[in-house]
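Reviewer 2 asked us to include a model.

Predict the structure of this chain.
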Amino acid sequence: MKELVKEQLAPTGVLRAGINMSNFLLVSSAAANGDPAGVSPDMAKAIADDLGVDLQLIPYNGPGDVADGAINDEWDIANIAAEAERAKTIMFSRAYCEIQATYLLPPHSAIRTLADVDQPGVKISVKERAAYDLWLTENLTKASLVRTATMDESFTVFKEQAVDVLAGLRPRLLDDATKIPGSTLMEQSFTAVQQSVGCQRGKPAAASYLNAFISQSITQGLVAKLIDQHGVSGKLSVAPALAT
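Predicted model (structure tokens):
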């Protein structure tokens, strides 16, 4: 079984892993050689070690770019949030960790609940093609999204333009809230962005292996160990035991 997986994932003896560099919780530092370091690169290394192959990290500026890489055969596995749109070209494992996504409100906002956000005339600043942008696109029916290329730009639009809400990952918004006195970070979360490992479609043995490997990594404590090791405890959580 593992030999077939190696043929599907690393036919040259090198496992190419697509890494989303914009997620500062999953890629939290850099190694001495300049390679990205953090929970996501370490999960890729654990998979390569289990398969007995070398690892090559392929950095991308954002999750949308990682997803596009599947079409061009740029990687063998990708550490990225599972979303319906991305599943058209990627087969995802169960989630191994998750991050809450919520809203930051400006001073004196009349918004109090999640339902208050999805109302006509409400504008939400959001990083385009982030997992939470995809969720908002599929689930909101009345509010409008103001998309930007980066998280920094979405914060600037929220701060300087007539935008009612800033959507993002809770750890990032905690930091953004300190830059706007009187702003409010909602206690409720509209979704949890779950991080998975994916491979290109048409590789069922590889997909089955990745799912089993992630399950084992959760139950044996590897994911929790990496979260603690990279100092992101309390910001990044191990995915629920029954997550799929």
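The first strand starts at residue 14 and ends at 20. The two ends are 22 Å apart (CA to CA). We have added this to the supplementary material.
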